[in-house]
Design goal:
- This is F5/8 type C domain-containing protein.
- The chain has one domain (40-163): Sandwich (Immunoglobulin-like).
- The protein is 12% helix and 41% strand.
- The protein is built from one helix and ten strands.
- It has one helix at residues 10-28, and strands at residues 42-45, 52-55, 58-59, 67-78, 86-95, 102-103, 116-120, 130-140, 144-153, 157-163.
- The strands form two sheets. Strands 1, 2, 5, 6 and 9 form a five-stranded antiparallel beta sheet that branches. Strands 3, 4, 7, 8 and 10 form a five-stranded antiparallel beta sheet that branches.
- A hairpin with a 6-residue loop joins strand 5 (86-95) and strand 6.
- The radius of gyration is 18 Å and the shape is elongated.
- The relative contact order is 0.29.
């Protein structure tokens, strides 16, 4: 039986991310003549039932007849703040027939190889009023995936999604 780091489990990451965001906000918050010592956070869900639903129809270079993937760019856009704190989470489901769906935890594959990942994009690509994330999905070629997105930010945002592969 192996040892598990429970802090690294996806359901425990939200608490750690919130704790880190609060600490970062405290460090960035300047003194104010009027106001409190707290910063408001906003929760934003993707519009519609799912942000995306479709097939993993891009063949992988390693196994072009058996493994498919999809890559997305997720952009959070603020209308009021050029620099805001953000965190994003996803709820992912898969299906072989497009009818019967099952949730996929982040580390569902053997040996810790993720079926999907959601990571912050490189800082070199940073733009004012935007936070960018990259999402990767891998699995059986032409299997179905769908996912919902939820952002936690210090400013109201809109969520946009672009499939790049």
């Amino acid at each position: 039986m192996g040892v598990t780091n429970y802090d690294a489990l996806p359901e425990n990451q939200l608490t750690a991310n919130l704790r880190n965001a609060v600490q970062t906000a405290r460090e960035r918050k300047a003194r104010q003549r009027i106001g409190g010592s707290s910063i408001r956070y906003y929760r934003t869900d993707n519009t519609g039932t799912y942000a995306w639903s479709g097939r993993l129809d891009t063949p992988s270079a390693q196994s072009p007849t058996t493994i498919g993937y999809a890559v997305f760019v997720v952009t959070l856009t603020s209308t009021t703040s050029p620099a805001f704190l953000s965190s994003i989470s996803a709820e992912v489901e898969s299906s072989t027939d497009g009818v019967n769906w099952a949730p996929i935890p982040w580390l569902a594959a053997p040996f810790g190889a993720p079926d999907w990942t959601l990571n912050e994009a490189d800082a070199i690509e940073a733009e004012p009023y935007k936070a960018t994330y990259r999402m990767f999905h891998g699995g059986t070629l032409n299997s179905y995936r769908r996912f919902k997105l939820q952002a936690l930010t210090t400013d109201p945002v809109s969520i946009s999604l672009t499939r790049v592969l």
